[in-house]
UniProtKB/TrEMBL annotation:
Stretches assigned to coiled coil: none
Top-rank EC class of the record's enzyme: transferase
EC number assigned by the record: 2.4.2.3
Reactions catalysed, as given in the entry: uridine + phosphate = alpha-D-ribose 1-phosphate + uracil
Signal peptide stretch: none
Lineage: Bacteria, Pseudomonadati, Bacteroidota, Bacteroidia, Bacteroidales
A single GO cellular-component term on record: cytosol
Identification of the protein by name: Uridine phosphorylase
Domain of life: Bacteria
Protein's GO biological process: purine nucleoside catabolic process
Pfam families: PNP_UDP_1 (PF01048)
CDD domains in alphabetical order: UP_TbUP-like (cd00436)
Domain (Nucleoside phosphorylase) ranges: 32-268
GO molecular function, one term: uridine phosphorylase activity
Amino acid sequence: MKKYFASSELIINEDGSVFHLHVKPEWLADKIILVGDPGRVALVASHFENKECEVESREFKTITGTYKGKRITVVSTGIGCDNIDIVMNELDALANIDFQTREEKKQLRQLELVRIGTCGGLQPYTPVGTFVCSAKSIGFDGLLNFYAGRNSVCDLPFERAFLNHMGWSGNMCAPAPYVIDASAELIDRIAGDDMVRGVTIAAGGFFGPQGRELRVPLADPYQNEKIEKFEYNGYKITNFEMESSALAGLSRLMGHKAMTVCMVIANRLIKEANTGYKNTIDHLILKVLERI
Ligand code: R1P
Ligand code: URA
């Protein structure tokens, strides 16, 4: 039996667009670039030969156009995994639910999603300016725990090794971190030989959850020291950002291909930062546009 989605579950605006994104089904390309900053959407689209639609609502700005003949939709997600839950569910609905009948379509339409973001580097080989692809993401955000099938798509031995290494119990592991792989095919295609293939912690905040202490002390003052030293099956943790785990996790559950690549704008080990990155992230955007 086909699944039917009531108007309270899948909210469709009067003009036929999806609730938060305000995007209509016919505007969605199969290749999608996600960025955090709404200002980065125009930067990506500045390389398009043509634009077929442009729409903006809250932090979600969307442009669909073509780059060297490839039809691409670029969407901003704002900051955090809560927004990834909204963006991924609405993009998947645009692709795989019939907005007239409110029923799931027969054939899965698989999307290819690449997030282009910024991150904090954690290793000596991830200085400011490095492009890090998240081959694996460790989600500190808990989002995936609300979906059935979480354990079937996560790397459970890696999760256990990480928790043992951190020595966390009680509040420090609520919610328990989940470990999820990006699409290996996308990582191979996008990372090439000029990007680091890393393990990314997607944190539920920019300060405490990433071990930044301002006026309020951290629950675990040794968090980042332990994270930097963690090693499992040859993997080391390379960077912090805030969305890659939710993107990789939901894409796996929905049947899409996804990955994240971020430019390092702060190295936490070396204690350096670059606030002028908005001029240099275009190099990363062009590489992704060529390879997507
Ligand atoms: C924090 O400053 C934001 O920057 C990173 C983090 O994931 C978080 O969203 O990514 P974006 O530059 O894509 O927003
Ligand atoms: N984005 C993050 O989430 N953390 C950083 O340190 C830099 C960018």
